[in-house]
Amino acid sequence: MLNRRGTASVVLCRDCGHVQACPDCERPLVYHQAGTTLRCHHCGRATPLATRCPNCRSPRIRYLGGGTERVEREVREAHPALRVARLDRDVAERRGAAEKIVDAFTAGQIDVLVGTSLVAKGLDVPGVTLVGVVSSDVALNLPDERAAERTYQLLSQAVGRAGRGDRQGLAILQTYQPEHPVIQAVAAGDGARFYAAELDLRRRFGSPPFGELVKLTVALPEREAAEREGAAMAERLRERVAGRRTAVIGPAPAYIARRNDRWRYHVILRGDDPVAVLGGDPGPPWSIDVDPESLL
Fold first, then answer.
1. Cβ–Cβ contacts within 10 Å for residue 291, how many?
2. Considering the chain, what percentage of its residues have pLDDT values greater than 90?
3. Does 212-290 carry CATH code 3.30.70.600?
4. What does each C-alpha distance from 246 to 143, 200, 270, 276 come to in angstroms?
5. Inter-residue contact 163 to 169 (CB < 8 Å)
């Protein structure tokens, strides 16, 4: 399992360092080996594959990072006798393709199944005795309150696919952070260890369930205008929180700063009763998310 699609997650010029990015949301475009376009995995936009750097016209283009397509190719090259298949969203978009692959894997007609989180959830195949997770810590460092929680859930689900039959299973996690509480808890099969570490961290910073969060997002066509509006909102809120156990964080660009031709900035309220501090819906161009599932 590698929870990233495509062949290369970054297309970079080796001369000037320019990274080809989506013109709509400015996230790095992903190269898929099967096509002649680069695709944005956030907004879905397809952009023609450039053979020369759009910035300096150099032909020295390099494809960095990796996804499920690359893992599938390397498994085939390393083990040509094995029957290999891939299951990710690109495959699942084709009607009936996912079911066909799962049925073949269950029947033992596929030796190695490479995929994203789709292969970690709900597959009950007794013949699976080995699970490998590539870059298991890739989502641990996302700027989100629940990054560790989501990573633990995904890794636990993936590890749980091995050894569901009569034979013992083995799971291998590839990681740069072997001492991280999430990796340690998954490796030990000790959910209580992760729960205790995560609860202690949330208590320290007043995160749910020890406090409440409100995420306010402003979205405007001009970046400077969005930033100014965010700064003005943050200043108004800081005046209101005087004497309260509430913190105002931001403004800060959203993780995907531009979407649908609008620049987005977040202001976060964290405390005992941030909704009371807010005092109602500020209205357009703001949107409000109370106890958000994600801060991204």
1. 12
2. 39
3. yes
4. 20, 19, 6, 10
5. yes
Place 46 in a pLDDT band, splitting at 50, 70 and 90.
confident
CA 118 from centre of chain: 14
Please give the C-alpha separations between residue 196 and each of 39, 173, 185, 207, 223, in angstroms, as whole numbers: 40, 22, 10, 14, 41
- pLDDT(8) > 70: no
CA proximity to 50, closest of 42, 294, 58 = 58
Domain positions in the chain are: 68-204, 212-290
68-204: CATH homologous superfamily?
Answer: P-loop containing nucleotide triphosphate hydrolases (3.40.50.300)
Of the candidates 152, 134, 125, the residue with the CA atom closest to the CA atom of residue 74: 134
Could you tell me the CA-to-CA distances from 266 to 52, 87, 255 in Å, in that order? 36, 35, 9
Q: Where are the beta strands (DSSP E) in 195-278?
A: 212-220, 246-259, 262-271
pLDDT of 216 strictly over 70: yes
Q: Which of 75, 184, 78 is nearest to 134 (CA)?
A: 75
Q: Which helix (H) or strand (E) holds 103?
A: helix 97-106
Residue 277: count of CB within 10 angstroms of its CB:
17
- Over residues 224-257, the pLDDT tens digits come to 999 999 999 999 999 888 878 888 988 998 888 8
